[in-house]
Amino acid sequence: MTTVIEVKNLRKVYKRTRKVAVDDVSFSVSEGECFGLLGPNGAGKTTTLEILQGLRSATSGEVTLFGLNWKQHETKLRGLMGGVMQHNNLYEKLKVKECVELFASFYPSYTPIDTLLERFNLSEKKDAWLSELSGGQKQRVFLAMAVVGQPKLVFLDEPTTGLDPTSRQEFWHIIKDLKEAGTCVMLTTHYMDEAEFLCDNLAIINSGQIIESGAPSDIINRTFETPVIKEPRKATLNDVFLKLTGSTMERESYA
Amino acid sequence: MPELSQTKLYPFWQLMMVNIRPFFRDKAVLLWTFGLPIFIALLLIQAFSGGPKMSPMNVVVMHGEQIEQKWLKAMEEDPLVTITRLSQTDSIVLEDSFASAQLAEVISSPGSVLRKLQNEVSPEVYLAPNAMFSTHNSDESLMARNYLLRLKAQANGEEMQSNVISVKGYRYTDWLIPGIIVLQVLGLALVSIANSLVSDRQNGFFKRLRLSPFKRRDYIIGIVLARLFLLVFQMLILFVAFHFLFGYTLQGNVLDIIAVMALGSFCICMLGVLVGARSQRVEVSSGIANLLYFPLMFLSGIYFDTANFPTLLREIVSLLPTTAFLDALRLVANQGVELAAVSRQLIILGVTSVVFFLIVYFCFDWGDEKS
Fold first, then answer.
1. Residue B7: pLDDT band by 50, 70, 90 thresholds?
2. Every domain of chain A and the residues it spans
3. A217 CB contacts (<8 Å, ≥6 apart)?
4. Do the chains contact at A107 and B369, CB–CB below 8 Å?
5. Interfacial residues of A (vs B; Cβ cutoff 8 Å)
6. A129 to chain B: which residues are within 8 Å by CB?
7. Which residues of A touch B199 (CB under 8 A)?
8. Strands across the sheet containing A3-13
9. What does the pLDDT look like over A23-45, one tens digit per residue?
10. Which of A139, B98, B270, B290 is 20 to 30 A away from residue B198, measured at CA?
């Protein structure tokens, strides 16, 4: 499989505070893979992500996307990526369709807006203002803006923080669809269930260093030795809420 | 293979529309952005368009002073003139003060008759044996002197007309209106554009844009075109209002006027973008915008003619974009001159715009560490 992201010995020290935000981090992500960066607040997830996005420069180390570096190929790389940030804001009085159209205009070709809105379950809201949407609907709009140009790499920085379980489920299934279509997804999250559901591989980062990495099941097996942990999990409050509110863990169709 | 659309969407156009639509969808924004400035513009014109008015005046006649009886009678009958005859003692004190050049002290001393008159009658002019003195500025003094001399001439049956010939394009209102237009441009283009940019930066909009292949120039062109569109909308309303309320008509070629307005507005818009180029907080951009707004407003000759400034200051002021814009607009719109006659002003506006654009292009903070 083609390597999309290659990070070698990445290090970032903030000049003003002299804080080491990222310390000797290395990993790689392949085409069609969802890679998760997990860790507590201030662990260095967003800094790492912003270096990968070409928004910050690394103090040392090497970062290549699609075999290209930011210094020489910025224009080309920006055309291959999209992203949803931790905090997303746009003018409240813009319609859903207008927001997606804006980002479509930046790419030479794009998914037809109506098709995309239908796939993201936003057709009925296409003429609604952003201010009229729920948190989950807004987040889907921002994801639609990120993928309308059919980027090969999508960055998602804590995309489901603050969403209710139903919205999170909807969001997850959209990400799954993207993966199946061959898009590489780079995700940061605080939610372990999200990481487990979406990520093929992940890295747990703490104080700027990767303390564990690999496939979620491998990490669990390496971390816990008692068989109880390996049994099928019991129903959780999350499952009760989903059942009572009419949603299930079963995949709904977004195609 | 996923479905693809090749229909061309122009990013600068989309960015322009993104900046225009919210204005028309929010009544409060519409009111404060358009309604209030238009109201203030009309109010300013109304307040200034009448020109200086003749105030009541107090004419002091010294004891023993020989004044033509006809003139004295005409002044006594005039509703604007109050005659006060000074006693012999007061006249002597006043005459002594002329000799010792201490008139101001005498007038302002608490027990002075003249001080009392000043407080009670709105004194403008003192009629002394050989001169007229005024406690007000030279323009008002001159007006009062002319007024009294006209009364004198009329009392003697002499014709002395001094009416103003009202020619469109040369009236005081005509002189004022282009200034009010430039003031509107300054408000919307400088202040509003700078604050809007900082707000976009604070909301992470630039970072969001950087996660796509958008081009910087498209954003700058989009936001400037959006403000130019809003200005066209505002100017249309203002010109129609000025026409019906004050009989204002454009004397020059409409295309020339549009060209001057477009270049002038573009230049001020670029200044607004420059102010918002690196500011991280609205308080900072507002402060910088205000710092520029007031000198540009006063020095460019919006309210008063700058012809009386010292030569060096006048030369410096003429290089300001607002001065070049206003001078060109007054000449083209009011006096109907051709663009060639305002080429100096157009060059100043063009060069300034390019300089602003280049600084913005290279110094703009797009929310990433590199910029």
1. confident
2. 3-80+152-244, 86-150
3. none
4. no
5. 50, 53-57, 75, 78-79, 81-83, 85, 87-94, 98, 101-107, 109-113, 115, 129, 146, 149-150, 155, 181
6. 25
7. none
8. A20-30, A3-13, A60-65
9. 999 999 999 899 999 888 888 89
10. A139
Q: How large is the ipTM?
A: 0.84
Share of residues in chain A with pLDDT > 70 (%): 87
Length of chain A: 255
Question: What is the model's pLDDT at position B351?
Answer: 96
Amino acid at B342: V
Instruction: In whole angstroms, give the CA distance from residue A7 to residue A35.
Output: 13
CATH of A3-80+152-244 given 3.90.850.10, 3.40.50.300, 2.60.120.200, 3.40.50.2300: 3.40.50.300
In one letter, which amino acid is A104?
A
Longest dimension (CA), chain A: 54
- Helices within chain A (DSSP H only): 45-52, 70-78, 96-104, 113-119, 135-147, 165-180, 192-198, 216-223, 227-230, 237-244
Nearest CA distance, A140 vs chain B (angstrom) = 15
SS3 A6: strand
Chain B residue closest in CA terms to A152 = B212
Contacts of B204 in chain A (CB under 8 A): 85, 87-89
Residue with tokens 């420069």: A57
Q: Is B32 on the interface with A (CB under 8 A)?
A: no
Instruction: Give every CB contact of residue B263 below 8 A, 6+ residues apart in sequence.
Output: B325, B346, B349, B350, B353
